């Protein structure tokens, strides 16, 4: 069965084993739209390395859930898509809405990992999750983020170049959120 066969029914929900692939494809499509503005399924397939049928399906699903919309076009078969310019329900700008979607997908993936990690191969049944609180200035917070981004540079081409992946490599979610901790309503005003 090909990816096109798997997703040929518009309302077909992927089974649990395919959910990671769904997250990967939809995230890649949203990232591409954020980068280039508008894209057709054929263009997305050429850029991302998926089939045009798979890209078309996921673009329609993203539109169905209000994350993207059809872009104006001159007719014909080409159907360009773009990120929603405005979310009428919340009035949030595109960047904020995209960030909320990405965090939701990250949280969903984390919950699925917690629920199913015992089904992973033995060598993959651990994670490297951690959290920390550090007292930083805004500039230092940006510097920490830059250090983390630079640490990932040697691995970034592996997504687009499967032959660069060593044996045994699997997709691993790398999620970093740096944000200031706001005081609770009951904290004294000078505490942060």
UniProtKB/TrEMBL annotation:
<dbReference type="InterPro" id="IPR036388">
    <property type="entry name" value="WH-like_DNA-bd_sf"/>
</dbReference>
<protein>
    <submittedName>
        <fullName>Helix-turn-helix domain-containing protein</fullName>
    </submittedName>
</protein>
<dbReference type="Pfam" id="PF12840">
    <property type="entry name" value="HTH_20"/>
</dbReference>
<dbReference type="InterPro" id="IPR036390">
    <property type="entry name" value="WH_DNA-bd_sf"/>
</dbReference>
<dbReference type="InterPro" id="IPR011991">
    <property type="entry name" value="ArsR-like_HTH"/>
</dbReference>
<feature type="region of interest" description="Disordered">
    <location>
        <begin position="1"/>
        <end position="20"/>
    </location>
</feature>
């Amino acid at each position: 069965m090909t990816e096109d066969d798997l997703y040929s029914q518009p309302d077909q929900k992927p089974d649990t084993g395919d959910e990671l692939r769904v997250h990967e494809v939809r995230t890649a499509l949203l990232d591409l739209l954020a980068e280039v503005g508008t894209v057709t399924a054929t263009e997305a397939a050429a850029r991302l390395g998926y089939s045009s049928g798979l890209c078309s399906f996921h673009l329609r699903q993203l539109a169905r859930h209000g994350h993207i919309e059809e872009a104006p076009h001159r007719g014909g078969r080409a159907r360009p898509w773009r990120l929603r310019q405005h979310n009428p329900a919340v009035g949030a700008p595109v960047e904020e809405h995209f960030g909320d979607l990405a965090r939701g997908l990250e949280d969903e993936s984390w919950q699925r990992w917690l629920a199913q990690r015992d089904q992973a191969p033995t060598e993959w049944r651990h994670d490297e999750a951690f959290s920390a609180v550090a007292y930083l200035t805004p500039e230092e917070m940006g510097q920490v983020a830059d250090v983390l981004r630079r640490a990932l540079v040697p691995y970034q081409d592996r997504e687009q170049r499967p032959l660069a992946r060593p044996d045994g490599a699997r997709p691993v979610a790398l999620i970093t959120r740096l944000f200031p901790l706001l005081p609770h309503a009951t904290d004294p005003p000078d505490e942060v």
